[in-house]
Amino acid sequence: MSSLTGPTDTGSTDTDTRPGPPPPARFAYGRHTWKEIGHLLANLPCAVLGFGYAVVTVCVGVGLAVTVIGLPLLALGLAGARGIAGTERARARALLGLHVDRPSPLPKADGFFPWLWAQLKDPVAWRSQLYGFIRLPWGVLTFALTLISLVVLWPLLPFVARGLANADRAMVRGLLSPSDELERRIAELESDRGVVVDTAAADLRRIERDLHDGAQARLVALAMGLGLAKEKLLDDPEAAAAMVDEAHGEVKLALQELRDLARGIHPAVLTDRGLDAALSAVAARCTAPVQVSVDLAERPAEAIEGIAYFTVSELLQNVSKHARATSAAVDVWRAGDRLMLQVRDNGVGGARLDGGGTGMAGLADRLGAVDGVFVVDSPEGGPTVVTAELPWRSRPGSA
Question: Is pLDDT at 5 greater than 70 in this prediction?
Fold first, then answer.
């Protein structure tokens, strides 16, 4: 699964091997000590700039809040505070060896007022502004103590610098890092909620289109045909009988279309007999022979079972339409608290998440919306192996 730890700010080339804490302070001035001294001396000019920005943006925004431009100005100021916080994290990384993860970006807002509200309630931006406010007195203090120690107490400067730098590290961790895992999860869930809503709307549009263009149109034609047959019943019984016979065929086709539509919403075999039988039925319709293996001691929750079914179903449709495969296999099993799916074929490969008309990106979005994982391994020339994970949720009342 993907890591829940966000990326760090750009500007460092050794993000894979983060250094540990600096060595203990010594009387001799080492490289870490000089970096800490440089950081402390730079605190004052940085603090003046940060304090000025925080005061101006907050005071002007709040002061003009009764006007049309007040809240937008405050929102812009808060957005800029995130950038200043990124600069401070980069400075702490370069001079203090402190790597702090970047907070999650705000979800993309659809329209001006959602963007405005998201900026105004952004806790990361407000903590960044608080950091700017409290840094001015701290910057004056650290600059003065470091400068005095450098002139008068230079033998003790490494210890003074280490103590002040540790306080700086604590301040950066406390105010400029992600508040906690909950903040990151909230941002992810807000994004996933949008995916779920879009997917549900698309499914409803598909069902409406299928009903309108398929069964509904056929039933309208059936009603017209039966009306004509009724008119001809006495005058031309043979023609009426032919029309009724034709209408009977239309009824069969309409029923078949309705069954197919119902199967696309939720197949009865899945409800009654579970994934093994439902996936075997899907595999039987594939153009290539498919071996199905379902190793589950119990059935998962209905929602998870439905997502698993439609994921495998769409992947097998891709095998029929695009893979030109002569064999395929479906494996379903449980691994701890995850439901695992894998679909393999020996086709031409080349399936991608970023296009190609195979619907892979949509499947990845759907699984991501429920904390699932979707991985495609499909080199040119094949074979194609698609692995999916879903969170395991037991059915109510199961052991």
Answer: no
